[in-house]
Specification:
Elements: E1 3-5, E2 8-10, E3 24-28, E4 33-37, E5 45-49, E6 57-66, H1 67-79, E7 83-86, E8 94-104, E9 123-134
Antiparallel strand pairs: 1-2, 1-7, 3-6, 4-5, 6-9, 7-8, 8-9
Length: 137
């Protein structure tokens, strides 16, 4: 899966890229519908859609392997946006804000954070969960 957020492309198909693409992207869009009783009709109700425009949400899970990718993701999240997001769900792109990020350094990571490879590249293995919200400015 290739996922582009602003200037950063996740899942670059080039062979030189050691950082994997997103592991999981979950898109949600919830319409607001209210249930109201009908006066004088006993227990009968009616449903009413109360929102004309509902914003897209995306929760993205991605891993960083190198310290460079870790810094790129941290910088991107700190900027907040809005960024143009391009992926298979929105191939023409959608402007989105980064709401929050969660970074996990856990026992499941194959390498401990900040160790060196044979090539001298610094590693920073972590699992990121990034929440995005459609911009409607």
């Amino acid at each position: 899966m290739i996922f582009k957020i602003g200037w950063l492309t996740l899942g670059d198909p080039s062979e030189e890229e050691v950082n994997p693409g997103p592991q999981h992207a979950r898109w949600t869009k919830t319409n607001v519908v209210v249930e109201k009783p009908i006066p004088g009709k006993g227990n009968k109700t009616i449903t009413i859609r109360t929102s004309d425009m509902v914003l897209d949400h995306c929760e993205l899970t991605v891993r960083s392997i190198t310290n460079d990718r870790y810094k790129q993701l941290k910088h991107l999240c700190d900027e907040c946006g809005p960024f143009k997001v391009v992926c298979n769900h929105v191939p023409d792109g959608m402007n989105m804000y980064i709401l929050d990020r969660f970074i996990d350094h856990s026992e499941n990571d194959k390498e401990p954070p900040l160790t060196e490879t044979q090539t001298g590249e610094t590693l920073n293995v972590a699992t990121w969960t990034i929440s995005l919200l459609e911009a409607w400015d």
